What we know:
Layout: H1 3-6, E1 25-32, E2 47-56, E3 60-63, E4 71-78, E5 85-86, E6 88-93, E7 98-102, E8 126-131, E9 140-154, E10 159-166, E11 178-180, E12 186-193, E13 203-207, H2 208-221, E14 228-229, E15 232-235, H3 240-245, E16 255-260, E17 275-279, E18 282-283, E19 289-291, E20 297-299, H4 301-305, E21 312-319, E22 322-329, E23 331-332, E24 348-351, E25 354-358, H5 361-368, H6 372-375, H7 378-386, E26 397-402, E27 417-422, E28 425-426, H8 430-438, E29 444-449, E30 454-458, H9 459-472
Antiparallel strand pairs: 1-2, 1-4, 2-3, 3-7, 4-5, 6-7, 8-9, 8-11, 9-10, 10-13, 11-12, 12-13, 14-23, 15-16, 16-17, 17-18, 17-21, 19-20, 21-22, 24-25, 25-26, 26-27, 27-28, 27-29, 29-30
Amino acid sequence: MDSDTARSPEPVANGCRVVPCMDPVVKVFCVHTEPNFSLPWQQSRQYSSFSSGVIIGGRRVLTSAHCVEHHTQVKLKRRDSDTKFLATVLAMGRECDIVLLTVDDNEFWEGVSPVEFGALPSLQDAVTVVGYPIGGDTISVTSGVVSRIQTLQYVHASSELLGLQIDAAINDGNSGGPAFNDRGKCVGLAFQKNTRDNADNIGYLIPTPVITHFIEDYEKSGEYTGFPIHGIKWQKMENPDLHNAMGMKPDLKGVLVTRVEPTSPASGCLQPSDIILSFDGVDIGNDGTVPFRHGERIGFSYLVSKKYSGEKALVKVMRDSEVHEFEITLATHKPLIPGHLKGRPPSYYIVAGFVFVAVSVPYLRSEYGKNYKDYAPAKLLVKHFHAMAESPDEQLVVISQVLAADINIGYEDIDNSQVVSFDGQPVKNLKTLVNMVENCKDKFMKFCLEFGQIVVLETKTAKAATQDILTARCIPSAMSDDLKA
């Protein structure tokens, strides 16, 4: 391949739109073997998928993290080749839904130049999405414009980062493929679409600031450390009465802190009823937005997401009518119910047929489907959206199901009920519960569940019955490997 044709073309002199070079766009083939989160001692049947990716500098390829989640094999194929090359995962950013791949075979890199990244586009800028969506085996091109720029929820890990909304068609298989501006520069990666009944042609791109953050984060330390969070819950201060009642002068603006996550860096300095006036010198509006380019505003969480884990930020707050400044060290989120397990298999523990697990978003999806927010019990959703971890290792431990046996008669209907304490001791996480049960010498074991429900078992009989229950259901072990250490 001629190197001149491989390079992204420069804009022509008269300003006409440039057709992007498609040679760096690759097709991604992946074989997945997912854990079975509802039956955590086994794996689901493997399946295959295909998606899109793009070659960048340093012999690397970008695609979407959800396209290679739980991968057992990843292959890449260039547009001009009939060969699929084995790829290796260098770093996976689940929060930003980006993964970095490489290929050892030199043949894969011959004669192709990486894409060049462009600046964040403006509203109504034209974009061209290139990839391998369903409906054919060859490359596909769709066009549209940028219709909205805002912080939005990334579905793969329920994180909130900067995103581009476009009206170009994005379908299964497009994920990970690049979107080019009219200068032939890559301005984002396709990664999700709006599937609501009343939404037409609404797709989303991961913009270059997020992509650049991910790449630079990896290059700093050789691993992905994640996007930091502010670690607070807040409310707007648009109501004049609220504004006045908090002692705010008319010229002051900000947001009211309602809760502070105990595991966040802000917990050491911020308090409920504090009013955050600015972040890193940027004033925050009463609606929680900050200036963003010319004539635009955006949620102030965007300022936080631009920082790196371990960096410091200056926060100005008003407390009891006095203004204070705090320097906080930013860190990544440690939620009570994690959005992912970073590729690790799920943990579980079984005694007397009671299956104990730690709740995670993948577990909720396994139990209640992709739309778990509509179908999961309110008691779990409240914990998911509102509860906060008191320590980094705290977990929400539940009895996911009861494997029916003589020892547990009368308890068969218990499912997804939180275990609050064991023999009067609080259950901090699954490992704590395992240690307490395994070392229990009392005649009876007493599990206290939410809403006052209790489970009482004779210790010796319950432990003796466990192995028969495991054997009858071909379960290899009473606990996952991570709990045996």
